[in-house]
Design goal:
The complex is a heterotrimer of chains A (223), B (666) and C (317).
Chain A (H helix, E strand, L loop, with lengths): L38 H30 L9 H4 L2 H26 L3 H31 L8 H34 L3 H34 L1
Helix pairs in contact in A: 1-5, 1-6, 3-4, 3-6, 4-5, 5-6
Chain B lengths: L14 H23 L3 H9 L4 H32 L9 H36 L7 H20 L27 H29 L12 H33 L12 H35 L6 H14 L15 H29 L8 H23 L2 H7 L3 H31 L5 H27 L15 H30 L41 H12 L11 E4 L4 H17 L3 H19 L5 E4 L1 H24 L1
Antiparallel strand pairs in B: 1-2
Chain C lengths: L8 H5 L3 H15 L13 H34 L17 H28 L13 E7 L4 E5 L4 E4 L2 E4 L3 E8 L4 E4 L7 E3 L5 E6 L4 E7 L12 E6 L1 H11 L5 E2 L1 H8 L8 E3 L1 E2 L3 H6 L31
Helix pairs in contact in C: 3-4
Classes of the chains: A mainly alpha (223), B mainly alpha (666), C alpha+beta (317).
């Protein structure tokens, strides 16, 4: 069988497929040919990819919760357990903390140390407040015999909400470390990259929380 | 103080683990002693253990994989011997041991043998092929490797302290729950996989970012070598699938440690959900393993036929197609769980559909060979061996994808034959091919061809002799994981299969001999030019081994086969291109962060397994402190001076010019 | 009277009798030696239909695979570097025609297979009753650690590690597990199905040839797993009726207490027969009113096992 010879293979040595591109046209370059991106873009991009993977992990817990939501083993279900006031408070704390986190990012781009630290501190306090309310909820549930060992539904609930809570704890630890780093090292390039990553993380936690309250608390309460 | 740990955990009364443990201990002492006597510790610590260079990390990954493949293979030998001896007889391995051995065999082969080998090759090659200096996050790369090593260490510790899981390589519920597996075995499995899983996930993030955001100027997506495309697809799968494994094993851990009820039989737990979740990870996992192997074969078929890859765009499309569809087929691992005809049929059809992608790739390789000038160096032999075995393995997979056939063959030796056929014939053959192909690049000398060819032929013969009888046994009704056999009619096939293991053992011996002989004769096998195979992609434009910075000057890519075009132009012009303007190069500093993090990860894992709670807290604090110390450093890079860069690159150019002159004379 | 045999147009196209016979003969010659357990020697309609689908799929695949392997070896040999007669075509990197073919061949194969899969999965769904004029025999199956319990609810008897069925009579199995997942599998009779605690799976099989067949568990369930074998005796309906008569009223009562004894994890159970069965026992197992004892495995290290007291035998819920 005779194969069609690629027309400009000789002239285009090295481009035997001649994929519709003039090698030396001198015109617009394909966006993907621009060479490597800057360090801050690469870092943030990589962190985004990590966040996406974290969201996949959360979706594993969400899926598990959805499957187990009816498996109450004769025990209490969501509507008898969830306190909407508490959820509103927790959501307020977290959403507000996202706002303050954004404010700290603005202060950081303006290189104002005091304001950055203050906004970060408030973010941390709000996050701690959220955690406190959540721990209180867990303690209450366990005290009334609705702990995770009671039923598969409660296992799913504690694991999903708890996973988010563990992420908040990690975030607070990171936050404290960032506050110390900024204090000691100032707004160096690598410190700024980490601060941006932290902001991404914190906002992503907020997004997960919104999904969580919808699927767990609001839908659970409506049963 | 020491949780559940006490002296009863050491198998003093059991000869096999005791002997194995002692042997390993003696070998380790021997190696450490040799290093100490030769005074190599400083070199090892500065150049390898603390290295953040993707090439060094890639080599270490491959070494870890090779060693663990040996461990997994020794498990396999024990299994085959047991099944040959235990026909209407008890054999030499009681059930409690046999069950641990087949569980360890699968776990080690997949998580600590194949994965590191494949990830190591991707680590080494991808930045070189993309024309960049390193991966996106070099220190994270080091952390990833050492966490994987930590997981491997924990699994091996289970041989001498405690026991391993007895559930198979995937701990199905409720067998893996505390009620039916009350010992530490499943805990060893859980923590070693979780720890190394973090490493793998980080590696996935790293390589995806590198491939998508860091390529040489001019290297658009459709100018990347095929291996980079398959590496991209594989790492996208890692990023998307490994979190599911993390979540599922975390749920099982919560069940075992805190009395949760995700997968228990009681209180509403759902063991079927475990099957769904674990295989939602499990199926993409096998594509994570095979896609890089496909990429390696693309490189090898192309290079050793002296032709560009046929149907490049079609190959890219097929790769991405496989990547996406691999998430839609997981139920074919449990057709017999009773999901109903509609669901079974839908997943059966989806599974067949994925075969379209693979079929396209095979035909494109076939037409790459067509019209080529084929050299039968060892890598090409592995590639041809792959073509033949993998097609059969793929066919058996499509047969199993038909639910009524699966109703008779699920969990049988036919299934075992299928997945070994595709993993050994696909992933392992690819890994060995890649190892031999890129070994000269990594170390500056070739591997001995004679031993390499012997290794190939014995391995191929061994694979056929071991696994074809498995197909027969499956059709004769034999199920898998039997510690003893009571059907005499299966005997002849069991014997043939065990003889096949002996043939494979010869193959393994030849592989080891190849390495040893090559190292001893390295001067005779030296490759001066950096391009021993007449390669087509950018890694062959560097010296062997490449300097730390890979490329003195970042390449500017103008064609699809980035290096081939440059090479042909140089041959035509009878001279190299002009010497570039050199600049000083900044490279990331080596750091012990990865190693120390993994140390704390190991102690955390061990402490969690044995319920030593204070040690868990101390280890986690240690890991956190390691991060903070690393984050606190002020100088992240060292500079390589212009003079040094010029000197190194001039040596490379001189070698190339010598070769060019040689070619003219020829 | 093989109602599970698909009869659509697709089948008649793939019904190349001589080739299929040759293939079957070849495969049988190699693999059919195992008299009692071979998947390729069906003794009932389900196994027969499964085998036909297997061989048909194999044939379709081989039609692609064999030429491809031959082409691989042929091309590799012909285009070897030393062969001066072969034409070196380094620019042959794309061909629209070839691309069309290499995408179409797998797609066509998938279309064939897809039909096979859809029709076969529906016709051979384990839950689908067999069309028959004869009233099906009900057998309830419980997988224990590590033995099989077969309850004949209408006959009021039960057996351990042995199954007796009349030939020509469809058997409807209701299956559950006392503990972990197992899989009920009699290769010569047909499909397997998982057994799971707390739920019931269903399977319909029929034996058409008299004989003794190999039965096993096809899902690893722990240290005693290899012991989960049971012979399946397929006998004439009159012999079967005689066997039932002989067993009924015999010694051995299967009730809560004897079940609890049976359910204790142990390896190597002899075959046994219970002459009477407490009604509703199977349902009690399914509803987890009768829980088995958890496994007190002597593990290496870790002290005593931390087993939840809820899993002690005999606790009603």
């Amino acid at each position: 069988m005779t194969a069609p010879v690629a027309p400009r293979a000789e002239a285009n040595m090295g481009d035997p497929y001649v994929l519709g591109r003039n090698v030396n046209a001198g015109g617009e370059e394909d966006r993907s040919e621009g060479g490597g991106a800057s360090k801050s873009i690469v870092t943030l991009y990589g962190f985004w990819i990590f966040l996406l993977s974290d969201i996949v992990m959360f979706s594993g817990f969400f899926a598990s919760y959805a499957v187990l939501v009816g498996a109450t083993a004769g025990g209490p279900d969501g509507s008898s357990l969830f306190e909407l006031t508490r959820i509103k408070l927790e959501t307020g704390c977290l959403l507000l903390s996202s706002y303050t986190c954004g404010m700290s990012a603005i202060a950081a781009t303006r290189r104002t140390l005091a304001l950055t630290e203050i906004w970060l501190l408030v973010t941390g306090l709000l996050g701690a407040g959220f955690l406190g309310l959540e721990l209180q909820e867990f303690a209450k549930l366990i005290a009334q015999g609705a702990g995770p060992q009671r039923s598969a539904f409660l296992s799913g609930f504690f694991a999903l909400v708890g996973c988010h809570g563990v992420h908040v704890v990690a975030g607070l630890l990171w936050l404290g470390t960032m506050m110390a780093q900024i204090w000691v090292k100032g707004f160096r390039a690598d410190v700024m990259r980490r601060l941006m990553c932290f902001s991404l993380f914190w906002h992503a936690l907020d997004i997960i929380w919104v999904a969580l309250i919808t699927i767990v608390y609001l839908m659970g309460h409506a049963r | 103080m020491l949780g559940k740990l006490d002296w009863s955990a050491v198998p003093v009364g059991e000869p096999i683990p005791l002997a194995a443990g002692t042997a390993v201990f003696i070998i380790m002492l021997g190696v450490l002693g040799w290093i100490t006597r030769r005074g190599h510790w400083r070199y090892l610590w500065l150049e390898w253990i603390t290295s953040v260079d993707h090439k060094r990390i890639g080599v270490m990954y491959c070494l870890l994989g090779l060693v663990m493949l040996l461990r997994g293979f020794s498990d396999a030998i024990m299994m085959r011997v047991q099944q040959a001896l235990a026909i209407n007889a008890p054999g030499f391995l009681p059930p409690e041991h046999y069950d641990q051995i087949f569980s360890a065999h699968g776990t080690i082969m997949i998580f600590f043998g194949s994965m590191p080998f494949v990830i190591g090759l991707m680590n080494f090659v991808v930045p070189l092929q993309l024309g960049v200096r390193d991966v996106a996050f070099p220190t994270l790369n080091s952390v990833s490797f050492w966490l994987t090593a930590s997981g491997a260490l924990l699994v091996n510790i289970s041989l001498v302290v405690g026991e391993f899981a007895r559930t198979g390589w995937l701990p199905y519920a409720p067998l893996s729950e505390l009620a039916y597996s009350p010992g530490v075995g499943v805990d060893y499995y859980l923590w070693s996989i979780q720890i190394s899983g973090v490493g793998t996930l980080m590696s996935g993030v790293n390589l995806v970012t590198t491939i998508l955001k860091m390529r040489a100027k001019g290297m658009g997506y459709l100018r990347m070598p095929m291996f980079c495309w398959t590496a991209l697809a594989s790492n996208l799968l890692i990023v998307a699938a490994f979190p599911i494994l993390t979540a599922t094993l975390a749920m099982l851990t919560l069940d075992r440690y805190l009395g949760f009820h995700f997968f228990t039989n009681d209180a509403g737990g759902n063991p079927m959900m475990f099957m769904n979740l674990i295989w939602s990870w499990g199926h993409p996992e096998v594509y994570i393993l095979i896609l890089p192997a496909f990429g390696i074969f693309s490189e090898i078929f192309s290079t050793f036929s002296g032709k560009p890859l046929f149907g490049y765009r079609s190959m890219v499309a097929a790769t991405l197609f496989i990547c996406v569809v691999s998430f839609t087929v997981w139920l074919h691992h449990f057709f017999t769980m009773g999901a109903g005809a509609d669901v079974n049929a839908a997943f059966g059809i989806a599974t067949s559909v994925i075969a379209v992608g693979t079929g396209v790739k095979i035909y494109n390789w076939l037409f790459t060979i067509y019209g080529g000038r084929i050299r039968f160096d060892t890598p090409m032999l592995w590639a041809l061996g792959f073509m033949v075995t993998f097609i059969v393995g793929g066919m058996s997979g499509v047969l199993l994808a038909v639910p009524p056939a699966d109703f008779m063959l699920h969990n049988s030796m036919f299934l075992v034959a299928h997945f070994h056929n595709v993993i050994v014939g696909g992933v392992l053959f690819g890994a060995f091919a890649g190892m031999i192909y890129w070994f000269p690049k990594a170390f500056g000398f070739r591997l001995h061809e004679g031993w390499g060819k012997a290794a190939f032929w014995f391995s191929l013969a061994g694979v056929v002799t071991v696994f074809v009888p498995f197909y027969v046994l499956g059709l004769e009704g034999m199920t898998r994981r039997l510690q003893h056999i009571d059907v005499s009619e299966w005997t002849p096939w069991l014997y043939v299969s065990t003889m096949g293991v002996a043939i494979m053992l010869v193959g393994v011996f030849c592989q080891v001999a190849q390495l040893v002989v090559s190292i001893l004769n390295r001067e005779a096998l030296r490759d001066e030019t950096g391009d021993p195979w007449d390669g087509r992609s950018l890694e062959w434009s560097t010296a062997s081994p490449p300097p730390t910075f890979n490329f003195a000057v970042p390449p500017d890519v103008t064609g699809q086969e980035a290096y081939w075009g440059v090479k042909q132009r140089a041959i035509k012009a009878e001279r190299l291109s002009d010497e570039p303007d050199y600049e000083a190069i900044e490279i990331p500093r080596n750091t012990p962060t990865g190693f120390i993090t993994a140390f704390f990860a190991t102690t955390t894992g061990f402490a969690l397994i044995w319920y030593i709670w204070w040690l868990v807290i101390v280890s986690l604090l240690g890991a956190y402190a390691t991060f903070v110390v690393f984050a606190w450093r002020d100088v992240g890079e060292t500079e390589i001076s212009v003079e040094e860069v010029r000197c190194i690159d001039r040596a490379r150019r001189a070698a190339r010019e010598a070769r060019l002159a040689q070619k003219e004379e020829a | 009277m093989t109602p599970a045999r698909p009869s659509s147009l697709l089948w008649s196209i793939a019904d190349v009798r001589p080739v299929r016979l040759f293939l079957a003969a070849l495969v049988l010659a190699v693999c059919g030696c195992a008299e009692d357990s071979s998947v390729l020697r069906p003794a009932g309609p389900i196994a027969s239909a499964n085998r036909m689908i297997l061989l048909d799929a194999l044939m379709i695949m081989l039609a692609i695979v064999v030429p491809t392997i031959i082409a691989t070896l042929a091309f590799a040999w012909w285009f070897r570097a030393g062969n001066k007669r072969a034409r070196y075509q380094p620019e042959f990197v794309y061909s629209g025609r070839i691309e069309l073919v290499v995408w179409s061949i797998p797609v066509l194969v998938i279309l064939f297979l897809g039909g096979l899969i859809w029709v076969g999965s529906h016709q051979l769904d384990p839950y689908r009753p067999l069309a028959s004029r004869v009233r099906p025999l009900d057998v309830q199956v419980v997988s224990l650690d590590w033995r099989w319990l077969f309850i004949y609810p209408r006959e009021g008897i039960a057996t351990i590690n042995q199954l007796v069925v009349p030939i020509g009579v469809p058997v409807h199995f209701s299956l559950t597990s006392a503990t972990v997942m197992n899989a009920f599998f009699v290769p010569r009779l047909g499909s397997m199905i998982y057994t799971m605690n707390g739920m019931v799976t269903h399977l319909h099989l029929q034996a058409d040839l008299p004989g003794v067949y190999h039965g096993q568990s096809a899902m690893f369930s722990g240290d005693g797993f290899p012991e989960m074998r049971f012979p399946v005796r397929a006998i004439s309906p009159s012999d079967y009726a005689a066997w039932v008569r002989g067993a009924r009223g015999g010694p051995g009562i299967l009730d809560g207490t004897s079940y609890a004894r049976l359910a204790r994890p142990s390896v190597g159970s002899p075959q046994g027969i219970f002459g009477s069965v407490q009604p509703g026992l199977f349902d009690a197992v399914v509803r987890q009113h009768l829980s088995p004892a958890a496994r007190p495995m002597p593990d290496r290290g870790g002290g005593g096992s931390t087993i939840s007291p809820k899993l002690e035998a005999g606790h009603a819920r």
